[in-house]
Amino acid sequence: MTIGSFAPPREKKSRNNKQVVDEKAPLLPRKQDELQGELDGFNGASFSGAVFNLSTTVVGAGIMALPATMKVLGLGPGIVMIILMAFLTEASIEFLLRFSRAGKTVSYGGLMGEAFGRSGRILLQICVIINNVGVLIVYMIIIGDVLSGTSSSGVHHAGLLEGWFGEHWWNGRGFILLITTLAIFAPLVSFKRVDSLRFTSALSVALAVVFVVITAGITIVKLINGSIAMPRWTPRITDMASIWNLFTVVPVLVTAYICHYNVHSIENELEDPSQMKSIVHTSLALCSTVYVATSFFGFLLFGEETQDDVLANFDSNLGICYSSILNDAVRISYAAHLMLVYPIIFFALRLNVDGLLFPSSRPLIQDNRRFALVTVGLIGIIFLGANFIPSIWDAFQFTGATAAVCIGFIFPAAIALRDSHGIATKRDKYLSVFMIVLAVFSNLVAIYSDAYTMFKKSKVSPRA
Predict the structure, then answer these.
(1) Which distant-in-sequence residues (6+ apart) come within 8 Å of 318 by Cβ?
(2) Which of 63, 139, 286, 411 gives 20 to 30 Å between its CA and that of 341?
(3) How far apart are CA 62 and CA 131, in angstroms?
(4) Alpha carbons 123 and 111: distance in angstroms, whole number
């Protein structure tokens, strides 16, 4: 079973495969009615729960890289690019929903299979697995850095727990990540419905808003004090190198809204699936607001000192009262935010791994043993990757960029260009070509930039 373990409530199939339309049909097939009862009489996900789940899928660790894009582009072009990418993401998701309804498919994998056959479905599943495993490992690395500290180039940066209590065995990186995995991740990934995560997703979005509010508050105080200047609204172009530098932020913006692998899962659980389009609009509007506010206030606060990861700027004196408390509040809220994003990303990962390994088996939700084995296996792989493969982040910089743009833009555009049902307009096809060109360009820039950075590090390290 790929993305979306549930059949849509408005459709179901009888044993002779004839479609039976029933607006009040259960979310699971009739043969699962008993299981439906065991799952607390689930009657469909709400509008707000779906918005929070989709928004949490969007807003991950990438939010911290957005202020640095403003430093490169300037506030004007930077904000325009954030909004433009939201519209392109909305268009790509609309492709998925429209062509899914035309073909009566209930998952992204099913849609790719319908358009490109078995190889298309498998390619999507591999991309989702590569992207989501990489994202979750990076999340765990960041959580370990924030709570337990990190060392680079011979310099040690103390984590929150080490700063508060000193260095002890119980606040070491490995132990903290083990406790986080067992106490937080394991219970949250045990839910069989994505809607069960609506409350943690709402809290995750709230923590992202907390970061924006703290940053905005600090910025306003420093503006009143006259201790920060107005930022640049346009890019600073002095030579060819500065022109090339403008393109290096494109991958960050292109991948900022990737959430496509959870769209069908969320739609399939809705009480009223016709609300999905409004849910996508609301979620992208919410995420765009958070992104624009984070970018604006982050760059306004730190100006030309803005780091590639703005969280690093909250590791020094902010020049106002209670600076250390505010720094800790930002870092705590960020770590907690990532912990709550983890299960929503894991949900799609588990479904795609199961679909790749057991394509002909009954739905994962019906097989408790397979559900447990896949869940435990993936948690273990992610934990080991975050703790014992230090070079894995470098590897996923290459594979992750490629997989993300395929999921978000190349595959939806290819489905529209394939047009299996003859419903694509000329506008759809022109837009699809633009998406593919943008995605390929973004990926090439990301790969070149990452390779160049690694090459520079390898030249410097022998002398260090």
Answers:
(1) 218, 326, 327
(2) 411
(3) 13
(4) 12
Helix, strand and coil percent figures for the chain, each rounded to 5:
75, 5, 20
254-275 pLDDT per residue, tens:
778 889 999 999 998 888 888 9
Identify the H or E element spanning 151.
strand 149-152
Work out whether the CA dihedral 127, 182, 269, 52 comes out positive or negative.
Answer: negative
Helix runs in 18-74, H state only: 33-38, 47-58, 66-73
Residue 237 — φ and ψ, nearest 5°? Answer: -115, 115
CA–CA gap between residue 335 and residue 64 (Å, rounded): 12
CA distance 88 to 43: 33
| Span 73-117, pLDDT tens digits | 888 888 998 999 999 999 999 999 999 998 888 889 999 999 899
Instruction: State how far Cα 365 lies from the chain centre.
Output: 23
Written as six digits, the tokens of 256 are 């900022």
**Using N-to-C axis directions, what is the helix angle for 411-418 and 75-103, rounded to 10°?**
50
Cβ proximity of 7 and 268 under 8 Å: yes
How many angstroms separate the CA atoms of 254 and 81, rounded? Answer: 9
How far apart CA 296 and CA 233 sit, in angstroms, is 10
DSSP class of residue 172?
Answer: S
- Note whether 32 and 366 are within 8 A (CB): yes
Residues of the chain scoring pLDDT < 50? 1-40, 462-464
Residue 274 is classified by DSSP as G
Q: Which residues are registered as beta bridge partners of 19? A: 13
Q: Which of 392, 341, 374, 335 is nearest to 130 (CA)?
A: 392
Which residues in 73-91 are b (16+ Cβ under 10 Å) and which e?
Answer: bbbebbbebbeebbebbbb
**Cβ neighbours around 116 below 10 Å, total:** 18
